[in-house]
């Protein structure tokens, strides 16, 4: 009987060891839902975890956009003395607190982070001060609207206007292929919707294509201005937004697809722009001259994270060639991530950054090219930007309407598409700054 009793007492601990093992293996594989599931089972048995397991769990919540859970998990992790040396997680903890408006917590931990990472820590503290000083200001000159007709409980992102009457965008709502392993959510597909005269969106359906290789994860995408070809990113994203490093598909790659006809059919020929053997390249945006391509890359010659570059696309019959990419320089690029470049009809640059002074997460910024130099980036302010992720901004001058993506609260899903309508008599940021 004593032996039986002993075995019964050991069963929970044996199970717990298995939960730990499964959770840690899942974390290595970036299977964040499985990480969360197994750690929660382990907590029910022992009520606590080792520091590295709390950090794994917190980061899994962060990648899934579960910010409240992220914050609460870091609060448990910070009780360990060793936590103060986990520099990346100190930063993630502070930035999560900033997203949720917990500025005192954010400031406290950014000061600690600054001791180990002075440059990034100081920049983050300045950004926090900017967010706190501007939290009550709202730009009343434009209206933000959730495009509920195309949004779902999944992620919708990367809106692009095609031919002034069609909006294309990516969504993970489709169930035609197996779900992604790290979120157990669906793979991203490209969709289209008709833009009516009143600018409402209708007739949403899957984007028409002929190439079977172009069916899933083909975004972010952009089109050249006469719609002869598209430039696409084949990715390994978490719900379309957060690029997961350390996976077997770690690198982003750009590809060019000739557009066969105006009806949004794609040819089966694909040309690699950048295979990303040593680094990633993605988030494409076309320039005014229709041959200049802007994109983001973590190339080793950059300033850190993803930087924005430009290159020239040369088409020789069915072959696409590019010139050596040029970094846009330190006024635009930072030790953080700069992505989603968009050039408007005036040649002005809109882009996204998580390092320039902002409200939290990714914010949209504006810069003009003067005497071959970019001006100091300007945050577009609230309500365009929020303390959450705001990115993939575009503007169509004929429609006089912009679109962007955000995971701010009160949305319909993980990431939603929003429209921007500028008030009558008011100019866009680009026109205003002339």
Summarize the structure.
With 434 residues, this protein is of the alpha+beta class. It is built from eight helices and 26 strands.
SS-based structural class?
alpha+beta
Give me the CATH architecture of the largest domain, please: 6 Propeller
Q: Write down the CATH topology of the largest domain.
A: Neuraminidase
Q: Roughly what fraction of the amino acids lie in strands?
A: 25-35%
Radius of gyration (CA) equals 23 Å
Task: Explain this structure.
Helix 1 runs antiparallel to helix 2 (32-46) and helix 5 (87-99) packs antiparallel against helix 6 (103-116). The strands form seven sheets. Strands 6, 7, 10, 11 and 12 form a five-stranded antiparallel sheet that branches. Strands 13, 14, 15, 16 and 17 form a five-stranded antiparallel sheet that branches. It is globular and about 60 Å long. The longest helix has 27 residues, at 2-28. Strand 21 (369-370) and strand 22 (373-374) form a beta hairpin. It contains eight helices and 26 strands. Residues 3-11, 177-182, 210-215 and 261-272 have low confidence and may be disordered. It has helices at 2-28, 32-46, 51-63, 67-77, 87-99, 103-116, 118-134, 429-432, and strands at 142-146, 156-162, 166-171, 189-195, 201-206, 221-223, 229-234, 237-238, 242-243, 253-261, 265-266, 271-274, 281-286, 292-297, 307-316, 319-322, 326-327, 338-343, 349-353, 363-367, 369-370, 373-374, 378-379, 390-396, 401-406, 416-422. The N and C termini lie far apart (87 Å). The chain has two domains: 2-134, Alpha Horseshoe (Serine Threonine Protein Phosphatase 5, Tetratricopeptide repeat), CATH 1.25.40.10; 142-432, Neuraminidase, CATH 2.120.10.30. The chain is α+β, with helices and mostly antiparallel strands and 434 residues long.
């Amino acid at each position: 009987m004593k032996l039986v009793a002993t075995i019964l007492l050991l069963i929970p601990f044996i199970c717990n060891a298995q939960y730990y093992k499964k959770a840690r293996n899942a974390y290595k594989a970036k299977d964040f839902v499985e990480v969360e599931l197994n750690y929660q089972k382990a907590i029910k048995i022992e009520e606590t975890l080792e520091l590295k397991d709390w950090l794994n769990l917190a980061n899994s919540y962060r990648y899934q956009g579960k910010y409240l859970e992220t914050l609460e998990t870091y609060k448990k992790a910070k009780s360990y003395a060793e936590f103060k040396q986990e520099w990346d997680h100190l930063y993630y903890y502070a930035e999560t607190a900033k997203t949720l408006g917990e500025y005192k917590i954010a400031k406290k931990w950014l000061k600690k982070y600054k001791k180990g990472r002075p440059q990034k820590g100081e920049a983050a503290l300045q950004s926090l001060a900017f967010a706190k000083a501007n939290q009550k200001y709202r730009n009343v000159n434009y209206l933000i609207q959730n495009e509920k007709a195309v949004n779902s409980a999944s992620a919708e992102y990367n809106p692009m206007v095609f031919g002034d009457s069609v909006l294309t965008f990516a969504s993970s709502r489709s169930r035609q292929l197996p779900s992604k392993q790290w979120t157990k959510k669906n793979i991203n597909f490209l969709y289209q919707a008709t833009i009516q005269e009143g600018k409402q969106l209708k007739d949403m359906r899957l984007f028409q294509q002929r190439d079977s290789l172009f069916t899933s994860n083909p975004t972010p995408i952009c089109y050249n201005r006469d719609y002869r070809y598209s430039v696409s990113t084949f990715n390994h994203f978490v719900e379309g937004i957060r690029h997961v490093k350390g996976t077997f598909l770690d690198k982003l790659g750009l590809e060019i697809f000739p557009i066969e006809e105006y009806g949004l059919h794609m040819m089966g020929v694909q040309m690699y722009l950048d295979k990303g053997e040593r680094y990633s390249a993605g988030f494409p945006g076309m320039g005014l001259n229709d041959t200049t391509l802007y994109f983001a890359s973590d190339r080793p010659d950059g300033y850190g994270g993803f930087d924005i570059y430009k290159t020239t696309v040369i088409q020789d019959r069915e072959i696409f060639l590019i010139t050596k990419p040029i970094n846009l320089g330190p006024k635009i690029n930072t030790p953080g991530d700069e992505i989603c470049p968009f050039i408007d009809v005036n040649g002005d640059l809109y882009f996204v950054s998580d390092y320039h002074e902002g409200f939290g997460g990714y914010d949209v910024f504006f810069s003009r090219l003067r005497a071959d130099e970019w001006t100091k980036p300007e945050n577009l302010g609230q309500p365009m930007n929020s303390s959450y992720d705001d990115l993939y901004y575009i503007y169509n001058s004929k429609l006089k309407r912009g679109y962007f993506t955000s995971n701010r609260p009160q949305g319909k899903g993980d990431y939603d598409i929003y429209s921007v309508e500028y008030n009558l008599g008011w100019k866009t940021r680009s026109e205003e700054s002339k």
